Amino acid sequence: MIGNDVIDIVQSRRESNWQRKGFLEKIFTAEEQLLIANDVHPETMVWLLWSMKEAAYKIYNRQTKIRAYIPQKLVCSMAFQNNSYASGKVSCCGTVYYTQTFIHREYLHTIAVSDPAQWDTVIEIEKKNIAKDPYGIPFLSSDPSPNRQNVSVSNHGRFEKVVGLSA
Amino acid sequence: MNKQELILKLKTIIKPYTTNTEAFDNLTEETDFINDLSINSANLVDIVLDIEETFDVVIDNTDMERMLDVKTAVEIIETKLAAK
Question: For position B32, which CATH number holds?
Fold first, then answer.
């Protein structure tokens, strides 16, 4: 399965004050707060971790059909990080999700998969071919098979990204 | 504070984060913060922090998990206020 999350950095500055008292403590674990505090660009780290949690939550929500606001239960760990790319894992209630984040000057885009073997099959899709099932989970409307390929849609501010797994 | 007053106070908290004014104007207990009011999930934590400040209560992670709609938020605030 796949999940994604895009964050418009400019929009996030308008919408959120991550330096607000209590903000980081409510959504990040102690280890994640340390990653933010020790990063040269703490703002980027805040949104990098947040987008990892959001992308992984989309898979968790599809797998379990559970809706909950559980940022602290989506525990992030970084495997690799530079100025334009990061990869890592998000664990939630015993399940591990794998993430890759593309860091641009004005936005971040994280993709999460449930199995690292799926990385080779990740594709970007055009928005116009997307429909939604009764759970609100998007799929490719042109796909006639009973096992419709799940896709993930994310938009924030000026940016929108649609990704899927090719068969 | 009765429930109507509590919902009014909650509406004042929610307003700056909502982008769907029509759903906000027609807000009921069934209104969902994300699906109906289109509130950004990163702003849900601001709502939790504003509730803590406004009502002088502490919302722990277990409460926060369920804080997805007006009804649950009201229920959690009422319980916290009663325990004071």
Answer: 1.10.1200.10
pLDDT digits (tens, 9 = 90+) for A114-167: 999 999 999 988 776 778 887 777 887 776 665 566 789 999 999 999 998 886
Residue B9 tokens read as 């106070």
What ipTM was reported for this prediction? 0.93
Q: B43 — contact with chain A (CB < 8 Å)?
A: yes
Answer whether A61 touches B (CB < 8 Å): no
Tell me the pLDDT tens digit for each residue of B21-78: 999 999 999 999 999 999 999 999 999 999 999 999 999 999 999 999 999 999 999 9
Q: Which pLDDT value is given to residue A63?
A: 92
Domains of chain A are 2-165 (3.90.470.20)
Identify the domain containing residue B32 by its residue range: 3-83
Q: What is the pTM of this model?
A: 0.92
Q: Does residue A133 belong to the interface with chain B, where contact is any CB pair within 8 Å?
A: no
What six digits make up the tokens of B38?
Answer: 């289109």
As for how many domains chain B has, the answer is 1
Say how far apart CA A164 and CA A160 lie, in whole Å.
Answer: 14
**Distance to chain A for B53, nearest Cα, Å:** 11
| Torsion sign across C-alpha atoms B60, A17, A42, A113 | positive
Inter-chain residue contact B45 with A50, CB threshold 8 Å: no
Q: Name the token pair of B11.
A: 């509406």
Q: Say how many residues make up chain B.
A: 84
Chain A residues with CB under 8 Å of B67 CB are: 69
Contact A69 B66 (CB under 8 A): yes
